[in-house]
Amino acid sequence: MTFEDRALVDRFLDMMAAEAGASRNTLTAYRTDLERAVESLGGRLGDADSNALSTLGTQWRDLAPSTVARRSAALRRFFGFLVDEGLRKDDPSAALPKPVHRRPLPKVLDPSEVTRLFESAEERAASNEPLALRNLALLELLYGSGLRATELVSLPRGALRKGQPFLILRGKGSKERLVPISSRAEQAVARWRENVPDSSPWLFPSGKKHLSRIRLYQIVRAMAGDAGIPPDRISPHVLRHNFATHLLSGGADLRVVQSLLGHADIATTQIYTHVDSGRLVELVNTRHPLADRRR
């Protein structure tokens, strides 16, 4: 990457952080995609024309459609920024590949598997062994509140207050949202917090920091194995999917689920309607005003 291109990318990422409120992970992903585009374009980015960008479709043909879509989106936003800032007059991004990207259906557990998972965790927590109490608290918050892994492991020690059935979290893009806390989760966290040192800033400490996302992933898979569920079918994100899917199965409004998950676009939430289509058909047949009318 030339010095000029590096300066343009830095200015672009500064804008994304300041104006769009992009998270550190998002900024890192944009930088990586732009640097890889530079390699594909032979070392030039800021002055690349339509002919140069049109070659990317061939170079990226072996990549997953989702990867191509992400890289194209990064470049479109980058060139749009250059035009807005008056750094170039034309926007060549129309020549970028436009793959048809179908969002895969999220993995979910059967209700019976969720029951087994909790029964196993509760049985182990009955011993009051600290790690078993911690694991039950993690499980209650993942499935009962739909927290993202990063949000969960970085919770402050005093995040949950007695009698307060919600949390206010700052999630992706530094956007705040209200997260429900069930009485089950409150009780599980209270039992676990008795084992957390008062000096710890984190609810789930690990060494000098908080529990890592990777360690959370390992804990959840181990809990699945204990419950007789194939570990490869579960992850913290799968439990977040279950939170959303089972809410919709119970008749929750799609907009409410969007708010609870912290989705900026309801199209992201709508994917859960495809997971339990049978339940949605049942709701139409039983709740629609014409359902009781005879033909």
In short:
The protein is mainly alpha-helical.
% residues in beta strands = under 5%
Question: Uncertain regions: pLDDT < 50 for 5+ in a row?
Answer: none
Name of the CATH architecture of the largest domain = Orthogonal Bundle
Helical segment count: 15
Task: Say which CATH homologous superfamily of the largest domain is assigned.
Answer: Intergrase catalytic core
Outline the structure in words:
With about 300 residues, the protein is mainly alpha-helical. The protein is built from 15 helices and 4 strands. The protein folds into 2 domains: about 5-95, DNA polymerase, domain 1; about 110-235, Intergrase catalytic core (hpI Integrase, Chain A, Orthogonal Bundle). The protein has helices at about 5-20, 25-40, 50-55, 55-60, 65-85, 110-125, 130-145, 150-155, 185-195, 215-225, 235-250, 255-260, 265-270, 270-275, 275-285; strands spanning about 165-170, 175-180, 205, 210. The strands form 2 sheets. A two-stranded antiparallel sheet has the order 1-2. The chain has a two-stranded antiparallel sheet with strand order 3-4. The radius of gyration is 23 Å and the shape is elongated. The mean pLDDT is about 80.
Task: Break the fold down into its secondary structure elements and pairings.
Layout: H1 3-18, H2 24-40, H3 50-54, H4 56-59, H5 65-84, H6 111-125, H7 130-145, H8 149-153, E1 166-170, E2 176-180, H9 183-193, E3 205-206, E4 209-210, H10 213-226, H11 236-249, H12 254-261, H13 266-270, H14 272-275, H15 277-287
